[in-house]
Amino acid sequence: MEYLSANKILVVDLASAEVTDDELSDELVGEKIGGAAVAKHLYEQHADGDPIVIGTGLLTGTLFPAAAAGVITAKSPVTGKISHCPITLKVGLEIQYSGFDYIVIKGKSPEPAFLWIHDGVADISSAADVWGKNVWETTDTWRKAMGDDLIQTIVIGKAGEDQSDLAQVCYNYWASGDRWGFGKNFGAKNLKGLAFRGMGLLEMADAEEFVELALDVLEEVKEGEFVGKKGIGDICTAIGEADINAWLAPIVHRHSACYNTPYATNTFVFLDEDAQKLTEPEHSEPGFLITDIFGLIGFKNLGLSAVEAGNLLKACAKYGIDAAAVAELSLAAGKKTLAEIQGSFATLVGTVTRPGSGIFSPWCPNQPLFGKFDDADDDPAAWWERRMAVASIFGIHPILAVMSPEITEDDLLEIATVGTEVEFSQDILDNAVNYLLK
Amino acid sequence: MAIKIDALKCTGCMACEMACGYHRDDGFALLSSCIVAYRTKEKKDYFGVLLKREEDLLIARPEGTEIKRIGETEETPAAGKQQDASAKPMLLREACDLCEEMDLGPMCIKFCPFDAISED
């Protein structure tokens, strides 16, 4: 694949320490387009190695609005289904420019290991020095060792190492959309995580036309219903949790967006400094970036203060455990204090509610946010699954996908065709979506 | 005309950096951009935007905008001082040319989803 692609699929066998790469064929892109659909195809191709597949959408890392997302595809140890987890923040972007479109990780490493993927090179490196360290310590260790604070990581903490069903992979320091226990998959492979850095170049078949189309869509998106809203609090309000904003407001520092995403879905709270302070904080770790809507809501519903909830979300991210699951199980077990809940991470078990069909992560709200989608009313569940499928194929941030009806399937097909010279039709997209949903 | 940056509107999304990279390389890349989202202090949530101009460096910090002579700032420190890896290329990058000869330019203004970048 010449355009919008590094033209490389990396295959890593942790058991044999063998690293190979294949070309990303035009035929595969022409059939499955990209993102989760290609990742699922690669999962099935390498199924005997119980693989974890990490990939980018066809538009990830471009100037198309909200083209931020990558995807992790694996068999969930809690549902038994092949499921997909969005990769957000700047991690999807970094994967795109690190030199590989897809990474297939199979087998089990005999010793703790991590993958260092940079500028088209992939190294299996020892993770012995970070095995037992939490998510934050691990990211810090790798960034320091490589001398680059912009390295992006996918990491597990203690929960993943111990192969808890609630283990969550984290991005750099923060919670992810892994509601599937993928952290356990990593732990079972002795895989502490991946570190990415790249200075690649994405070329387009018709660059000028691609950029003009992306700008046209951006201008429409910027007229959307979400304009004027920001942060995780306003998302909570949109799904009926209106009192979150006032509860959280005293500790909100700033809101930030994932790569090229026109809504700031992430909210940073200061836990031990004045949140209004704009100069560089004195403490090295003054707070936490909230990326998990339902973890936040769950901790509020336990009766915690906003500062306690922030501290608990931080503790969950360091431990690499699914905060929304922790909140639900703690509520059921009658645990209500910060100390009680944090002290139970190692022993927490139980059945957790995960709305949806088990394919796309319920980390993303399963309803339209702010915007009005004409096709959402008849069958909201089917609308959400399709919207997630399309977003995951093209690399669109899933939360923006349920926020912006201005991003249409027609837009995505047109710009994908302009960018690649592959004629993507509605039939091809329908087939790729059906492949994901079957 | 000059570029003006409101760091408090900025969400650190890097669209400006990629738009500038497209102007420089006719593809999507970040290595040559003269406007860069400053994001190395991730755990502190301290981010802003750097713009390399012909004579100086515009630094849009949350607490206000500074203009520094290139080579004398924290982001491009003098020789011998430790610097962030992300800042190293700034000295080597071309200065902002306001995307002259591009019909759409300046690209960073056009592609900022939050209107944090404007003409001064």
Describe the structure.
- The complex is a heterodimer of chains A (438) and B (120).
- Chain A is an alpha+beta fold and 438 residues long.
- Chain A has a domain at 9-197: Aldehyde Ferredoxin Oxidoreductase,  A, domain 1 (4-Layer Sandwich).
- Chain A has 17 helices and 14 strands.
- Chain A has helices spanning 26-32, 35-45, 91-97, 135-146, 158-161, 182-188, 207-221, 231-238, 244-248, 293-301, 306-319, 323-333, 338-343, 380-394, 398-401, 409-420, 426-437; strands spanning 9-13, 18-22, 52-56, 70-75, 82-87, 102-106, 113-118, 121-126, 152-155, 170-171, 191-197, 252-256, 266-270, 287-290.
- In chain A, the strands form three sheets. Chain A has a six-stranded mixed β-sheet, sandwiched between helices. A five-stranded mixed β-sheet of chain A has the order 8-7-11-9-10. Chain A has a three-stranded antiparallel β-sheet with strand order 12-13-14.
- In chain A, β4 and β5 (82-87) form a beta hairpin.
- The mean pLDDT of chain A is 97.
- The longest helix of chain B is centred in the first third of the chain and has 11 residues, at 15-25.
- The termini of chain B are close together.
- Chain B has one domain (3-111).
- Residues 76-88 of chain B have low confidence and may be disordered.
- Chain B is built from two helices and six strands, in the order βαββββαβ.
- Chain B is globular, with a radius of gyration of 13 Å.
- Classes of the chains: A alpha+beta (438), B alpha+beta (120).
- The A-B interface holds A 61-63, 65, 90, 93, 97, 136, 147-150, 172-173, 199-204, 207, 211-212, 214-215, 218, 221-222, 253-262, 264, 268, 270, 278-281, 283-287, 289 and B 8, 11-15, 18-19, 22, 25-31, 39-47, 61-63, 84-86, 104, 110-111, 113-114.
